[in-house]
Amino acid sequence: MPAQLIDGLALSKKLRLQIAQQAQALSEQGLRPGLAVVLVGEDPASQVYVRNKIKACEEAGIHSVLQKLPAQTSQQELLEHIAALNADASIHGILVQLPLPKHLDADAVIEAIAPEKDVDGFHIASAGALMTGLPGGFWPCTPHGCLQMLDAIGCELRGKHAVVVGRSNIVGKPMAMMLLARSATVTICHSATADLGAITRQADVLVAAVGKEKLITREMVKPGAVVIDVGMNRNAQGKLCGDVDFEQVQQVASWITPVPGGVGPMTITMLLANTIESAQRAAGKK
Ligand SMILES: NC(=O)C1=CN([C@@H]2O[C@H](COP(=O)(O)OP(=O)(O)OC[C@H]3O[C@@H](n4cnc5c(N)ncnc54)[C@H](OP(=O)(O)O)[C@@H]3O)[C@@H](O)[C@H]2O)C=CC1
Ligand SMILES: Nc1nc(=O)c2c([nH]1)NC[C@@H]1CN(c3ccc(C(=O)N[C@@H](CCC(=O)O)C(=O)O)cc3)C=[N+]21
Ligand SMILES: [Mg+2]
């Protein structure tokens, strides 16, 4: 029996309706939630992603501001823009689209964002809150979206073996922390992992967040596993595809996310949710 699809578009649609209601309730109190998206340079993929984020805000009734800065923007100029957004009471979330041009220090830019507006969840204050389980901060949108999908299918995580392939600060590492917080037994794999397949084959829940087309093949997946594909790659035909060989792996998995239509839309949904959360905190509601 082929795997069932975890439909990130359908789940997003449902969640964004709730988010739109929360945005409206806040707006009626004169506290319209606001997101600022900062895009430096002309990277075509980034332009598409940013446009999708702005469109999602509009549809949810969230105020959005797009700041497009030239590729030659200096570190200091960018930091000045961040400082202005930090001080702007109409803005509850600040997202600096990554990657930044090479001459800019992305880590320093992220740390310059006011932690209470860090709706991407990339600031060390957010990372620390996630790691300790202490309140405050925001959970990074991509792994949080993955967790929401696992919850939506009723996947019990306690005592299960979850394997995360990839250890970036924005996806793999926070994903592992979220699964650990749910009492899964977590293994993190990366480029130096010896015999990746031997480890992924033990996974009840497998999350692939690498950026390599068809890295995860059928032999690497335990029959009945739940497979979450975070990868966003362009194949030789220019088609969007994940890290999982979907055609093969859907024959052994119990559940699988498609690309497109899986983790991507959920990432944007969690960005909207974090922006609402930030506005609610600012309103002193929480
Ligand atoms: N759907 C969405 O919303 C999003 C999708 N993405 C996509 O997810 C993927 C991962 O993104 P991101 O975390 O930023 O990527 P990074 O490039 O920052 O991290 C990739 C990770 O994969 C590991 N890796 C590389 N090669 C292998 C290998 N052969 N076997 C095992 N591990 C390997 C790296 O290991 P090491 O640390 O040792 O180098 C690294 O930890 C990309 O395709 C990206 O486009 C990202 C963000 C959001
Ligand atoms: N500060 C910052 N925050 C991010 O969250 C961030 C970032 N920088 N840089 C780039 C990555 C990537 N990312 C995606 C979000 C949604 C889709 C998405 O909606 N994908 C659609 C398809 C889109 C298409 O067709 O191209 C889907 O999977 O169905 C993809 C990728 C967020 N990122
Ligand atoms: Mg990266």
Automatic annotation (TrEMBL):
Which GO biological process entries does UniProt record here? L-histidine biosynthetic process; methionine biosynthetic process; purine nucleotide biosynthetic process; tetrahydrofolate interconversion
Provide the catalytic activity annotation.
(6R)-5,10-methenyltetrahydrofolate + H2O = (6R)-10-formyltetrahydrofolate + H(+); (6R)-5,10-methylene-5,6,7,8-tetrahydrofolate + NADP(+) = (6R)-5,10-methenyltetrahydrofolate + NADPH
Q: Which GO terms describe its molecular function?
A: methenyltetrahydrofolate cyclohydrolase activity; methylenetetrahydrofolate dehydrogenase (NADP+) activity
Annotated GO CC locations? cytosol
**Coiled-coil annotation: which residues?**
none
Q: Which SUPFAM superfamilies does the annotation name?
A: Aminoacid dehydrogenase-like, N-terminal domain (SSF53223), NAD(P)-binding Rossmann-fold domains (SSF51735)
Q: Which pathway does the protein contribute to?
A: One-carbon metabolism; tetrahydrofolate interconversion
Keyword terms, alphabetized: Amino-acid biosynthesis, Histidine biosynthesis, Hydrolase, Methionine biosynthesis, Multifunctional enzyme, NADP, One-carbon metabolism, Oxidoreductase, Purine biosynthesis
Q: What is its EC number?
A: 1.5.1.5, 3.5.4.9
**Tetrahydrofolate dehydrogenase/cyclohydrolase NAD(P)-binding domain: residues covered:** 140-282
Q: Where is the Tetrahydrofolate dehydrogenase/cyclohydrolase catalytic domain?
A: 6-120
Binding sites annotated in the UniProt record for NADP(+) = 166-168
Q: What is this protein's function?
A: Catalyzes the oxidation of 5,10-methylenetetrahydrofolate to 5,10-methenyltetrahydrofolate and then the hydrolysis of 5,10-methenyltetrahydrofolate to 10-formyltetrahydrofolate.
- Give the UniProt family note: Belongs to the tetrahydrofolate dehydrogenase/cyclohydrolase family.
The UniProt subunit note reads as follows: Homodimer.
Name by which UniProt lists this protein: Bifunctional protein FolD
Name its species.
Answer: Vandammella animalimorsus
